[in-house]
Each structure stands twice: as C-alpha cells, then as structure tokens.
C-alpha cells in the first residue's frame, strides 16, 4: 500500500476570518444576479440580450433530449414490412425489469424459424436500460422514438403491444 | 382620543410593514436565488392568465397553508404545541413596534411621531423580545414529543442565546457613541456629517460593529448559514411536528425576525429614516422618512438574502465557536476601543 501525501491549502488569518472569503463568494453570486437581472430586463423590454437563465420550461417547451437518449421502444420491420423479430427471447431473458413478454409462433417464411405472435412491453416496469437493444441479434428493437411522455391513467394502458410498438414509420 | 387613533394607525403600519414584507420576502427569496443561480424560479401561480413574474406565489402559499389539514400528532403536549408558534410570531411582531419608521412630522398644527412605541429604552425592548422568541422555539421542540424536534429546539436555544449575548455586546459600542438607548435619538445622533459630506452613520463610525451585527443578526434570526435550528432539508428542526398554518407561523416569524434585525441595523448603522442632505418636513417629509427607512431595511434584507444563497451551512460547533470565541470577544474589544477612543478624543 502506497501513501500519497495530499497537500492541503494552508489557511491563514485571511481565510480563517471568513470575511474575505465571504466577500469573494458574494462577488460571484452578485455578479450572476446582476448580469442575469439585466438580461431579464432587456428581454422584457423587447431588446436583444443573452439568456438570463438556463431553465427549459419543459411542459411548455419541448424537452431537449440527447442524441443517444434511450426513450420508448419500437420494433423494426424487414424490407417487406414484416417484423424483424425472430422471437428468440434474448431480450426477454436479459431484461432486468422483466417487462418484456413474447409468445412465438411458426413463421410462414421457410428461411425464418419463428416469429413473434405477441410482443408486449410493460413500460410501467421498464427501467430504460437498453439491454434489450444490445441483446437483439437481428436488430429488431430500438429505443430511439424520442418519446418520453408515456404516462397513462392505468397500469394496463402502460403495456404496449406489437402493433403499437411497430406503428412508428421511422 | 386622537392620540389613541394615531397609535392604532402606527401599529397597523408596523404590522403591515412586517407581515407584508414577510410575504414579499417569500417571493424575493425564490426569485433572488433563481436569478443568482441562472434559473427562472417559481412562475406558475396565475390569476386570469396573469403571472406577474411569480408575485402570486406568496398568496398561493398562504391559501395552501390555511386550507391544509392542521395535523397534531398524538404524543404532543397540546396546549404548548399550540402556544409555541403564537409565542414565536408574537414576540417578533412586538419587536416591530419600537422601530422608528420615521421621525416626527408637524402637520395640522400638531407634532406627530411616526414611531409606534416611543420608549427611552427602545433598544433593550427590541433585544428583549427578540430573545423571548427563543421560548417559542424551545417550547415547540419540547412540546412536539419528538426527539428530532427536541434536538432542534435545543440547538435553537443554544444558538439564539449565544448570539443574543453577542448582539447586546456589539450594540453597546454604537449606543455608547450615540449616548442613548432610545432608537429615535440614535437616528438623530447620526444626522450630522463628517468633513461636510460623509453622513455620520453608524456604519462609518463603527464598521466592525456593523459587520459583527450582520453576523449575529443572521444567527439570531436563524438564517442560512446559521439555520441549524431548522435545517429544513437535512437536519429537521424544532418544527417537524407542525403542519398547516402553525408551520406557516414559524415561517412568517422567521421572516419577521429577519425584518426586525435588518430594521434595527438600518436604524443604528444606516442612519434610520434620515436622508443625507434632504430636509424632511411636513407630510411629504414624513412619507419620505417612511420610504427611506423601508428602503434601507430592504437593502439590508437583500444583502442577507444574497448571503443566504452564497454560503453553505456552518457546523454546530463552528457556529458556537464563532459566536463565543470570535464575535463576542471582538465585540467587547470594539466596545473597549470605542470607550478609550472617546476618552482620548474628549
């Protein structure tokens, strides 16, 4: 075990008396206060000024999501329009919240063994970890709809079935 | 008869000043912190679609607190539990009575004083009732029947008593210079000028006392960075077992205490209702006095509010160390230096 000496700043009378440090802190907050206040006033007067706050008034303005934000799932289609999902259950297996429920059926396509008969995701239980997307071997599930307002009035309405998950064209 | 009516008017003004400003301070606290922290702050309360930069939020708060269930836990000592918020609020509202909101005005052939309670010992009266406010805090903690409340009350008692002592020691120096305990005379004693241009305010004559007073005043009114009796977010305080308007009364009494401290500071250090180089006579002079006093009080409140949103909270031993080992000795030394200085300059 090695010891790493940490040099702590020495505190002289100036720091110990608090007064100078308090004044410095007040200088910072007062600077923010007056600059922001001036900007708010200029904007209220209809003049051009920088933003006085970094607040996003979320329900009024749309939420700003990151480019890689994990949002609501969607199921992708093959070029012919049929679902890509082969019902391998890897996503259902890896899901830590156990919110995916798939029932399989035989696929009419002889090249594909199975397809999903039903594919339900309980978004009330989903933790949006993205493991299902990582696990999918056929790239059938994505979490890129950029939809985060998923609240519903009942638990039942939080369960999204296959047609709902495939509705997004993009 | 007319004197009685005039006293009632003055008391009404003092109450309106304290309670109105306390409600306003709720808004100031939200907005000032928001602007200083690059936020917008509460702006949702609206009447007919008017938001008025969140000015309706204190009203919404009041309505919420009034209509909320006044839940009283089973283990409390009922009469004292109910008495504590009233004692807290009552004591600091009584302090307001002795503040000189203005001097004397000569209108309609009579001399009207603008100070609700004219007393030769105004300062002692204010300090006494500020100190009595401790009873409300301790009583609330004790009557709650909860250990969190009790510990909060004890913290409050230790802190407030420590800083009330400091406050008296600090104010001894300026009051010695003014040669009076009467707040009205203290204002008049600051009416002169130094070198013909610098107003002889307490802040220039006793700068150390002014800084110490701001520290002790913040601690005595339980504001951040000295809000250990409450510590609403982490170390719950003496009013954990209160809800509804009883809790609201503690909140208001905090704000009113703050106003009293700042009003007293404006009186003793910022020249009270006086305005330098302006003669205040007649009815307009009286209004100017009221406005000047209110403006100076608000300026101090603004400063303390900014301090509240700048500094983190002290630890309790640091707080008591600061009070007993720094502020009190400095205050006493300042007093001694003032007395010696006055004796040498005599």
Please specify the SSE layout and strand pairing.
The complex is a heterodimer of chains A (170) and B (346).
Chain A (H helix, E strand, L loop, with lengths): L12 H4 L2 H26 L29 E2 L14 H5 L5 E7 L7 E9 L8 H5 L5 E2 L16 E2 L1 H4 L5
Antiparallel strand pairs in A: 1-4, 2-3, 3-5
Chain B lengths: L1 H35 L20 H11 L10 H20 L6 E4 L2 E4 L8 H22 L3 H32 L4 H7 L3 E2 L3 E2 L2 H4 L1 H14 L23 H26 L12 H27 L7 H29 L2
Antiparallel strand pairs in B: 1-2, 3-4
Features of the shown structure:
heterodimer, A: 170 residues, alpha+beta, Alpha-Beta Plaits, 2 domains, three-stranded antiparallel sheet, 5 strands, B: two-stranded antiparallel ribbon
Please explain how this structure is put together.
- The complex is a heterodimer of chains A (170) and B (346).
- By secondary structure, chain A is α+β, with helices and mostly antiparallel strands.
- Chain A folds into two domains: 13-44; 74-165, Alpha-Beta Plaits.
- Chain A is built from five helices and five strands.
- Chain A has helices at 13-16, 19-44, 90-94, 131-135, 162-165; strands at 74-75, 100-106, 114-122, 141-142, 159-160.
- Chain A has a three-stranded antiparallel sheet. A two-stranded antiparallel ribbon of chain A has the order 1-4.
- The model of chain A has no long low-confidence stretch (mean pLDDT 91).
- Chain B is mostly helical and 346 residues long.
- Chain B has one domain.
- Helices cover 66% and strands 3% of the residues of chain B.
- Chain B has helices at 2-36, 57-67, 78-97, 122-143, 147-178, 183-189, 202-205, 207-220, 244-269, 282-308, 316-344; strands at residues 104-107, 110-113, 193-194, 198-199.
- The longest helix of chain B is centred in the first third of the chain and has 35 residues, at 2-36.
- The model of chain B has no long low-confidence stretch (mean pLDDT 91).
- Chains A and B meet through α2 of A and α1 of B.
């Amino acid at each position: 075990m090695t010891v790493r000496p940490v040099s702590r700043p020495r505190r002289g009378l100036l720091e110990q008396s608090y007064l100078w440090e308090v004044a410095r802190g007040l200088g910072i907050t007062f600077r923010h206060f007056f600059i922001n206040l001036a900007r708010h006033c200029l904007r209220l007067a209809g003049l051009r000024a920088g933003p006085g706050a970094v607040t996003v008034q979320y329900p009024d303005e749309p939420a700003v999501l990151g480019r890689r934000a994990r949002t609501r799932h969607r199921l992708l289609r093959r070029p012919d329009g049929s679902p890509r999902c082969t019902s391998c259950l890897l996503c259902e297996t890896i899901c830590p919240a156990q919110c995916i429920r798939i029932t399989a059926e035989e696929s009419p396509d002889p090249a594909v063994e199975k397809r999903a008969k039903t594919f339900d995701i309980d978004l009330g239980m989903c933790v949006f970890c993205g493991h299902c997307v990582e696990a999918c071997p056929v790239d059938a599930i994505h979490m890129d709809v950029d939809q985060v307002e998923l609240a519903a009035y009942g638990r039942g309405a939080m369960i999204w079935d296959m047609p709902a998950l495939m509705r997004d064209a993009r | 008869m007319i004197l009685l009516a005039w006293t009632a008017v003055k008391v009404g003004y003092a109450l309106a000043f304290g309670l109105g400003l306390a409600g306003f301070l709720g808004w100031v606290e939200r907005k000032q912190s928001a602007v200083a922290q690059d936020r917008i702050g509460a702006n949702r309360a609206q009447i007919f679609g008017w938001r008025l930069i969140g000015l309706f939020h204190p009203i919404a708060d009041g309505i919420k607190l009034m209509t909320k269930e006044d839940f009283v836990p089973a283990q409390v000592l009922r009469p004292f539990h109910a008495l504590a918020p009233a004692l807290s609020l009552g004591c600091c509202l009584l302090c307001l009575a002795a503040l000189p909101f203005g001097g004397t005005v000569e209108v309609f052939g009579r001399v009207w004083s603008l100070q609700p309670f004219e007393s030769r010992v105004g300062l002692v009266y204010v300090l006494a009732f500020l100190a009595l406010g401790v009873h409300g805090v301790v009583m609330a903690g004790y009557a709650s029947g909860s250990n969190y409340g009790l510990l909060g009350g004890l913290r409050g008692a230790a802190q407030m008593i420590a800083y009330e002592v400091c406050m008296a020691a600090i104010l001894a120096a300026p009051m010695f210079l003014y040669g009076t305990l009467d707040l009205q005379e203290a204002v008049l004693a600051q009416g002169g000028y130094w070198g013909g241009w610098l107003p002889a305010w307490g802040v220039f004559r006793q700068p150390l006392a002014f800084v110490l007073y701001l520290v002790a005043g913040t601690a005595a009114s339980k504001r951040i960075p000295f809000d250990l009796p409450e510590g609403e977010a982490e170390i719950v305080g003496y009013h954990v077992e209160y809800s509804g308007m009883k809790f609201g009364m503690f909140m208001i009494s905090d704000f009113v205490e703050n106003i009293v401290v700042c009003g007293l500071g404006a009186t003793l250090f910022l020249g009270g209702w006086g305005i330098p180089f302006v003669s205040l006579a007649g009815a307009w002079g009286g209004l100017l006095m009221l406005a000047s006093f209110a403006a100076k009080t608000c300026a101090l409140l603004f400063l303390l509010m900014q301090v509240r949103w700048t500094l983190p909270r002290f630890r309790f031993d640091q707080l008591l160390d600061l009070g007993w080992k720094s502020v009190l000795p400095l205050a006493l030394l300042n007093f001694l230096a003032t007395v010696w200085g006055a004796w040498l300059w005599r």
